[in-house]
Specification:
Helices cover 28% and strands 27% of the residues. The chain is of the alpha/beta class. The chain has two domains: 2-144 and 309-339, Medium-chain alcohol dehydrogenases, catalytic domain (Quinone Oxidoreductase, Chain A, domain 1); 149-286, NAD(P)-binding Rossmann-like Domain (Rossmann fold, 3-Layer(aba) Sandwich). The strands form three sheets. Strands 3, 4, 5, 6, 7, 14 and 15 form a seven-stranded mixed sheet that branches. Strands 10-9-8-11-12-13 form a six-stranded parallel sheet, with helices on both faces. Helix 4 (145-159) crosses helix 5 (175-186). The two termini are 19 Å apart. The structure holds NADP nicotinamide-adenine-dinucleotide phosphate. NADP nicotinamide-adenine-dinucleotide phosphate (NAP) binds next to helix 1, helix 4, helix 5 and strand 9.
Length: 341
C-alpha cells in the first residue's frame, strides 16, 4: 500500500484548466496485478481531445488522463508469473485487447478514458496487459510506444504488410508519422513525408525520408507524391490529417493501394467523392492502435533493430500543463514526454 501518491485528475468538467493535482492512496496489488511506479509518460493528440471533451463528451469525470507510459514494477500480486520487481513495463493502450481482431468489449478498455490513465506516480495494472520495455530504450523513449508506435506498426506492418521497395506517404511530423517513418525505413520502403515546416522536413530526411513536401507551400502535395511514385501513385498512405487531407491521400495513392485511416488532426467530417475509391479499388483501412500481441511484435523489432524513438522534449511532472500546451502548439517533432520525478 502506498499512502500518498501524486496524480492528476480531470475534475468537474472538461478543459485543461480542470486538470488538478491530487494525492491518493494506492492499494497493494491483488491477484494477477502489478504495482507500477511510473517513470515516464508520453502525450498523444488523443489526450488533448479527451481533456477538451472532444473525444468522448460522455466520458464520466473525474478521470486520470493519458494512455502511454513506462513504469517500474515495485510489487507483484499473487499468481503473477514471468514479471519481477525492478523490471520496466509499459501498460497496453487497451488493457482488454490482448490479441486477435478488435471487438467492442476490448475497445472499451482503453487507458486515459474510459479507464483511468497513467498521469500518476503509482498505478495498479493487470500483469497480462503489459509489455516489457526494450532494454536499449531510456524511460522517456519507452514511454512513447504504447499508442503512436503501435498504431504506425499496425497500419504499415500488421495490416499494411509493406514490402521492401514499397512507396509510403506520411502526413506531418507528429508522433504517429515519425514512428511510421522509422518503421517504413526499417522495412525497406521509400518514404515521402509532408510538413508545414521545412526545418522539420530536413530532420525527416535525416531519418531516411526520400521525398519531403512542405504542404503549406505546396497544397497539391497529393499529386506531387503521385508523380514521385512514377505517376502511378504510392502503395500506402498513413492518413493522420482527416478531413483536410483525405482528398490529398486519395490523389496520392495508386490503384489497389491502401490508405490507413488513422487521424483527425484537421477535422472529422468531409464530403468524399466515392468513385475514385471504387474505380481504383483503393483500400481504406481504419486503424485503432492495436492489441498487446501487436505491441509485443513492435518491441521485438525495435529491440532487434535498435530503433530509437524520437523524443522532442521532456517536461517534469509538475509541468503537465506546459507539456500539453507544447503538444497543442504543433511545434514538436516526434513525441512529447513527461518524466515522473
Ligand atoms: N486511430 C488510432 O488508433 C490513432 C492512434 C494515434 C493517433 N491517432 C490520431 O492520429 C492523429 C495524429 O496523432 P499524433 O499523436 O501523432 O499527433 P501529433 O503528434 O499531435 O501530430 C501533430 C502534427 O501533425 C501535423 N499536422 C497537423 N495538421 C496537419 C495537416 N492538416 N496536414 C498534415 N499534417 C498535419 C503537424 O506536423 P507538422 O508540424 O510537420 O506540419 C503537427 O505538428 C490524431 O488525429 C490522433 O488522434 C489515431
Amino acid at each position: 500500500m502506498i499512502e500518498a501518491s501524486r496524480a492528476y485528475e480531470l475534475q468537474g468538467s472538461f478543459g485543461a484548466q480542470n486538470l488538478r493535482p491530487i494525492t491518493r492512496a494506492v492499494a497493494a496489488p491483488g491477484p494477477g496485478e502489478l504495482l507500477l511506479r511510473m517513470r515516464a509518460l508520453s502525450l498523444n493528440y488523443r489526450d488533448l481531445m479527451m481533456i477538451d471533451g472532444a473525444y468522448n463528451p460522455r466520458q464520466p469525470l473525474p478521470l486520470v488522463p493519458l494512455s502511454d507510459g513506462v513504469g517500474e514494477v515495485v510489487a507483484v500480486g499473487p499468481g503473477v508469473e514471468g514479471i519481477a520487481v525492478g523490471e520496466r513495463v509499459m501498460p497496453c493502450f487497451a488493457e482488454g485487447w490482448l490479441e486477435g481482431p478488435p471487438e467492442r468489449a476490448k475497445l472499451a478498455t482503453t487507458l486515459g478514458g474510459p479507464l483511468p490513465g497513467v498521469l500518476c506516480e503509482h498505478r495498479l495494472t493487470p500483469a497480462r496487459a503489459v509489455v516489457k520495455a526494450p532494454a536499449h530504450l531510456s524511460d522517456a523513449e519507452a514511454a512513447t510506444l504504447p499508442c503512436a508506435a503501435v498504431t504506425a506498426w499496425h497500419a504499415l506492418i500488421t495490416e499494411g504488410k509493406i514490402k521492401p521497395g514499397d512507396r509510403v506517404l506520411l502526413e506531418g511530423t507528429g508522433g504517429v508519422s515519425i514512428f511510421a517513418l522509422q518503421i517504413a525505413v526499417m522495412a525497406g520502403a521509400e518514404v515521402a513525408i509532408t510538413s508545414s515546416s521545412s526545418a522539420k522536413l530536413e530532420r525527416a530526411r535525416a531519418l531516411g525520408a526520400s521525398l519531403t513536401i512542405n504542404y503549406r507551400e505546396e497544397p497539391d502535395w497529393g499529386r506531387r507524391a503521385r508523380a514521385w511514385a512514377g505517376g502511378e501513385g504510392v502503395d500506402h498512405v498513413v492518413e493522420v490529417g482527416g478531413a483536410g487531407t483525405i482528398e490529398g491521400a486519395l490523389k496520392a495513392v495508386r490503384p489497389g493501394g491502401t490508405i490507413s485511416v488513422i487521424g483527425v488532426l484537421s477535422g472529422v467530417r468531409q464530403p468524399l467523392l466515392l468513385t475514385p475509391i471504387l474505380m481504383q479499388q483503393i483500400r481504406l483501412q481504419g486503424i485503432i492502435v492495436g492489441s498487446r500481441a501487436i505491441f509485443a511484435d513492435l518491441c521485438r523489432a525495435f529491440g532487434h533493430q535498435r530503433i530509437q524513438p524520437v523524443v522532442d522534449r521532456t517536461f517534469p511532472f509538475d509541468q503537465v500543463q506546459q507539456a500539453l500546451e507544447h503538444l497543442r502548439s504543433g511545434a514538436h517533432f516526434g513525441k512529447v514526454v513527461i518524466e515522473v520525478g
